[in-house]
Amino acid sequence: MNIKDLLEGKISQLDLDQEFIIPEDLYKNTAILALDKVKVKGTLTYPTKDNLFLDITVSSVMTLEDSVDLQPVKYSFTFDLAENVYEKLENEQFTLDIIEILWENIVLEIPIRYSEVTDYKNLTGDGWKVISEEEQVSNTNNPFKELLNLKEKE
Fold first, then answer.
1. 3-state secondary structure string, the chain?
2. Does residue 75 carry a pLDDT above 90?
3. What pLDDT is attached to residue 117?
4. How confident is the model at residue 80 (pLDDT cuts 50, 70, 90)?
5. Cα 7 → chain centroid
6. The pTM is what?
7. Which residues are CB-contacts of 89 (< 8 A; sequence separation ≥ 6)?
8. What is the C-alpha to C-alpha distance for residues 55 and 16, in angstroms, rounded to an integer?
9. Strand partners, 72
10. Cα–Cα distance for residue pair 43/53, rounded to 1 Å
């Protein structure tokens, strides 16, 4: 992003209302299967020397693998970003790599576990089944129940 006019004082702020495409090679080795265009809305200001202040709202949709049934699911996210990005400025070229800044913050939005499964009845196999937390608490047919009781007594 060229910000020469802002750095030279010709404009007081740069309004951002754009969509950016994050290159697939950045997220191909992550939990993200796909990433929609990233919507950015906010401002970039240069109030004083060594202070290039980015104040934006970022939103998009990432496709993840469901933690329970391993099917692709959409995960919407939105976050606010307000930080000094002066260190990321490429002075000789008067440019700012907004993609790098966005990616550094999108990584923080990837959930550790995400599932849209609500019906666990169909998730069974030969000698196993997935149960909800409620079923786990009420399940009295636990072969390790005696061991758990002994451990609790200690």
1. CECHHHHCCCCCEEEEEEEECCCHHHHCCCCEEEECCEEEEEEEEEEECCEEEEEEEEEEEEEEECCCCCCEEEEEEEEEEEEECHHHEEHHHCEECHHHHHHHHHHHHCCCCCCCCCCCCCCEECCEECCCHHHHHHCCCCCCHHHHHHHHHC
2. yes
3. 81
4. very high
5. 31
6. 0.74
7. 3, 7, 52, 95, 96
8. 9
9. 65
10. 8
What's the CATH class of domain 4-116? alpha beta
- Residue 29 confidence (pLDDT) above 80: yes
Domain boundaries, the chain: 4-116
CA distances from 27 to 43, 65, 77, 114 (A): 26, 14, 16, 17
pLDDT in tens, 102-151: 999 999 999 999 988 877 777 777 878 777 677 666 666 667 777 777 88
Measure the N-to-C terminal CA separation of the chain; round to a whole number of Å.
Answer: 63
- Which residues are CB-neighbours of 100 under 8 A, at least 6 positions away? 88
**Residue 68 in contact with residue 115, Cβ under 8 Å?**
yes
Q: Residue 132's CB: how many other CB atoms inside 10 A?
A: 13
